[in-house]
Design brief:
Number of strands: 0
Shape: elongated
Helix content: over 70%
């Protein structure tokens, strides 16, 4: 059971990315701030895609599809 750890990971990444974004923006490096945000979003998106793949496999196993 994956439980809450993936939610805490995503929340942690979100908090870190928001801090980095704010710090970089205050330093006048808005381009780097946007890249940092994009990298965090891509990382979380990869985690979510992997979880969705696992969910679809589980549904296939439960209902004996394919």
């Amino acid at each position: 059971m994956m439980g809450l750890d993936i939610l805490f990971k995503i929340a942690g990444v979100g908090i870190l990315i928001s801090v980095f974004h704010t710090a970089l923006k205050q330093a006048g490096k808005e381009d780097m701030a946007h890249l940092c945000t994009l990298a965090g979003f891509a990382m979380v998106l990869l985690w979510v895609v992997q979880l969705l793949g696992r969910l679809f496999n589980t549904v296939q196993d439960v209902f004996k599809l394919f």
